[in-house]
Design brief:
By secondary structure, the chain is α+β, with helices and mostly antiparallel strands. The protein has one domain. It has 1 helix and 6 strands, in the order H-E-E-E-E-E-E. The chain has one helix at about 5-25; strands at about 35-45, 55-60, 70-75, 80-90, 90-100, 110-115. The strands form 2 sheets. The chain has a 3-stranded antiparallel sheet with strand order 1-6-3, with no helix packed on it. Strands 2-5-4 form a 3-stranded antiparallel sheet, with no helix packed on it. The N and C termini lie far apart (about 45 Å).
């Protein structure tokens, strides 16, 4: 098997997993099925130096520990990494870590989280 083929396998697996998630979002389920939750807030992140990070919280009523969480920001985040997690019941925490080798100052923007219920309810 060539290197190109080996590199292709993880991409295919990732697409299959994404298709399964999207498919589960649009499939009808029982009346008591948990719904995907989307929350947002406007946030003006502080200027962040290389290797530093910032964390903000977004109110997420209905979220519980163990739920899946993904975050997005409405501006170019340069070379910053973004992580989302449920830090307490009803609270999604979003952390950005500056990996750009320079100071980054993002403009005020909309930060969004999408939460898939999976935790203990």
């Amino acid at each position: 098997m060539t290197l190109k083929r080996l590199m292709f396998v993880p991409a295919v697996l990732a697409l299959c997993a994404l298709a399964a998630i999207v498919g589960s979002l649009v499939q009808p389920g029982p009346a008591d099925a948990q719904q995907v939750m989307i929350y947002s807030k406007t946030y003006d992140a502080a200027s962040t130096v290389d290797a530093a990070g910032i964390t903000t919280t977004i109110n997420a009523p209905g979220a519980v520990l163990g739920d899946f969480c993904v975050a997005s920001v409405s501006v170019d985040v340069v070379s910053m990494s973004i992580t989302c997690y449920i830090s307490a019941a009803g609270v999604a925490s979003v952390r950005m870590q500056n990996e750009s080798t320079a100071t980054v100052d993002l403009a005020s923007s909309t930060w969004r989280v999408i939460i898939w219920p999976h935790g203990t309810r």
